[in-house]
From TrEMBL:
Protein name, UniProt field: Tagatose-6-phosphate kinase
InterPro entries for the chain: 1-PFruKinase, Carboh/pur_kinase_PfkB_CS, PfkB_dom, Ribokinase-like, Tagatose/fructose_Pkinase
Pathway: Carbohydrate metabolism; D-tagatose 6-phosphate degradation; D-glyceraldehyde 3-phosphate and glycerone phosphate from D-tagatose 6-phosphate: step 1/2
Domain of life: Bacteria
Reactions this protein catalyses: D-tagatofuranose 6-phosphate + ATP = D-tagatofuranose 1,6-bisphosphate + ADP + H(+); beta-D-fructose 1-phosphate + ATP = beta-D-fructose 1,6-bisphosphate + ADP + H(+)
GO molecular function, one term: ATP binding
A Pfam entry, by short name: PfkB
Keywords: ATP-binding, Kinase, Lactose metabolism, Nucleotide-binding, Transferase
Protein family according to the UniProt entry: Belongs to the carbohydrate kinase PfkB family. LacC subfamily.
Organism lineage: Bacteria, Bacillati, Bacillota, Bacilli, Lactobacillales
Domain Carbohydrate kinase PfkB intervals: 8-283
Length: 305
């Protein structure tokens, strides 16, 4: 089974207006409330693609109830740990630019944390756990690292969408895949990339440091996949970008779901790219129909040094 973990879910409050003027009363043209959080987005795309999965994390208050109901309406399997405090609301303003204001997140009690962590004792080597998104203020990065140790001790695989030092620290536990974007990869090594060969060189370092597969997303320039068997590249398909929320999560979902079911990294990369671009071209996260349409437009070429 694939489990996604969203420690700090949200209601994504999408607000659209032609122009945002700071310091004035602005009126919305359109607004919408969506269940949000990176792991939840991964779960929603996994479900679209027909990959069985369960969304885990913490939900509380009227906002948490909204997220739970919205996910259950889609038929997604969830097993969120109930909490006393309210799940956060993240504001996504789509005006002349896209501006995001994300909440800090709720307080968790020790009993709530213990109830959540107990679930990981049941994992087996057939399971994959995907961690995505920020932690709540009362937890630090060690929370992820400690859970990852438990997951690996059960023989299960893990994926964590993180950057910087916490990415470096998780590599020794051999994540199934890491997915920095090209800027995050450059920052991790304190370098600047001038060409694809530079990106490949530093992507290979992540393999050497423990990652099983490396995806480097490059927004409108597509992506690269680096594995021990070779390097593959794809240009992004053409389309109108209407949404930058969740493209990275969708890419991760397309890759992880396909890889878990086929063990074919090239097919997984293909679905990862298609899912990322399909979401970038959609108002909300992509539908399966859109992902398949984009999939058919993508070609993947082997990259030779
Ligand atoms: N302008 C675009 N045109 C086509 N595809 C895109 C575009 N932007 C993003 N994508 C698709 O989404 C994938 C992930 O995008 P990106 O590189 O921005 O990841 P990210 O930085 O992790 O995203 P996020 O902002 O969601 O965290 C890309 O590899 C690509 O497939
Ligand atoms: O504050 P975090 O956890 O880093 O990011 C949360 C978030 O911005 O990420 C998702 C898009 O990737 C949104 O659904 C959600 O609001």
């Amino acid at each position: 089974m694939i489990y996604t973990v969203t420690i700090n879910p949200s209601i994504d409050y999408i607000v659209q207006l032609k122009e945002l003027t700071l310091g004035e009363v602005n009126r919305m043209d359109y607004d919408n409330k969506l269940p949000g959080g990176k792991g939840i987005n991964v779960s929603r795309i996994l479900k679209e693609l027909g990959h069985d999965n369960v969304a885990l994390g913490f939900l509380g208050g009227f906002t948490g109830q909204f997220v739970k109901d919205a996910l259950e309406k889609t038929g997604l399997k969830t097993n969120f740990t109930p909490i006393q405090d309210d799940t956060r609301i993240n504001v996504k303003i789509k005006a002349q630019d896209e501006t995001e204001i994300n909440g800090r997140g709720p307080k968790l009690t020790q009993d709530e944390i213990d109830a959540f962590t107990a679930q990981f004792d049941k994992l087996t080597e057939d399971d994959v756990v995907v961690f995505a998104g920020s932690l709540v203020p009362s937890l630090n990065e060690d929370f992820y690292f400690d859970l990852i140790k438990v997951i690996r001790s059960k023989g299960a695989q893990f994926v964590i969408d993180t950057t910087g030092e916490s990415l470096r620290k998780t590599l020794e536990q051999k994540p199934l895949v890491v997915k920095p974007n090209n800027h995050e990869l450059a920052e991790l090594f304190g370098v600047k990339f001038d060409c694809i060969a530079d990106i490949v060189k530093y992507g290979r370092k992540l393999l050497d440091m423990g990652a099983q597969n490396v995806l480097v997303s490059m927004a409108g320039d597509g992506g690269l996949m680096i594995t021990k068997d070779g390097v593959w590249r794809s240009l992004a398909p053409k389309g109108t970008v209407v949404n930058s929320v969740g493209a990275g999560d969708s890419m991760l979902a397309g890759f992880v779901g396909t890889y878990a079911n086929t063990k074919d990294p090239i097919e997984a990369f293909h679905y990862g790219l298609a899912s990322g671009s399909a979401t970038a071209f959609s108002e909300d996260l992509a539908t399966r129909e859109k992902i398949e349409e984009i999939y058919a437009q993508i070609t993947i070429d082997e990259y030779k040094d």
